[in-house]
Specification:
The complex is a heterodimer.
Chain A: E1 9-15, H1 21-31, E2 37-44, E3 49-50, E4 53-62, H2 64-81, E5 84-92, E6 94-96, E7 101-109, H3 112-129, E8 132-138, E9 142-144, H4 149-154
Parallel strand pairs in A: 1-5
Antiparallel strand pairs in A: 2-7, 3-4, 4-6, 4-8, 5-7, 8-9
Helix pairs in contact in A: 2-3
Chain B: E1 2-5, H1 7-13, E2 17-19, H2 27-37, H3 39-44, E3 52-55, E4 58-60, E5 72-76
Parallel strand pairs in B: 1-5
Antiparallel strand pairs in B: 1-2, 3-4, 3-5
The chains are: A alpha+beta, B alpha+beta.
């Protein structure tokens, strides 16, 4: 019991199902009241219209045996860098339409700075270190999303 | 050995995984061995700067990494999660 205050709770889900940000926040608040701030990032499918092409849906493929393990390892790095109370990550896979949730990252800590940093750190690594690939489907064609060199370069700031 | 392919690599090779008897002892050796088997591999592996590799579900940076005791090798393009 004495250690509980220092223990950072970690929960990671990779799923097709949607999630509810409010439910996830309440879930953390119900269990612990010792944190001072919660930072969150919610990623959704952009409603993109480029060159007369309208995005119908995104398909997220992943490497099932590895995805969750990679996310957990990123979160463990975050836990060792900052004093966090909770980390909750949900990443959706499968077919998602514009406006659908893709990813949720929540982190709590005693003070805001650590929570903000942890969420940003986890998102940076989710972008280019977790085996997930997005394919954009338009009316007439489809294409795999290209990785951004800038995403890879962002990792060096940590 | 089990070899897995994801995203456009899977599409170019035409299967999501295959079991193969492999002589190669490194990742790059395995790529060279596959390329000799069929044109689809030489197309898929034509530019290695777009290839990422996991050996037994661990990302590796160096293509000279040993695969001697590996059970599962995965090839895929740069990741685009988040």
């Amino acid at each position: 019991m004495a250690k509980e205050e220092n223990f950072c709770n970690l929960s990671v889900s990779v799923q097709e199902l949607d999630f509810d940000i409010q439910y996830e926040i309440d879930n953390i608040k119900r269990r612990k009241k010792n944190f001072g701030g919660l930072a969150s990032f919610l990623g959704q499918v952009r409603d993109s219209r480029e060159n007369d092409k309208t995005l119908l849906f995104l398909e997220l493929e992943h490497y099932p045996d590895m995805t969750e393990k990679e996310i957990i390892s990123i979160c463990n790095d975050a836990r060792s860098k900052w004093e966090l109370h909770d980390i909750r990550v949900i990443h959706r896979v499968g077919k998602l339409i514009p406006g659908d949730n893709i990813v949720l990252v929540l982190a709590t800590s005693s003070h805001r700075e650590e929570a903000f940093k942890a969420v940003e750190f986890i998102m940076d690594f989710l972008k280019s270190r977790v085996p997930i690939w997005k394919k954009e489907h338009y009316e007439r064609d489809s294409s795999w999303v290209k990785s951004e060199k800038s995403d890879e370069e962002l990792l060096s700031r940590w | 050995m089990k070899i897995l392919y994801f995203a456009w690599l899977r599409e170019k090779i035409g299967v999501s995984f295959e079991e193969k008897e492999i002589k190669a002892v490194t990742v790059i050796g395995l790529i060279e061995e596959l390329v000799l088997l069929d044109e689809k591999y030489s197309i898929a592996f034509s530019d290695l700067s777009f290839i990422r590799v996991a050996v037994d579900q661990k990302l590796i940076q160096d293509f000279k990494t040993s695969i001697k005791d590996a059970k599962e090798i995965a090839f895929f393009p740069p990741m685009t999660g988040g």
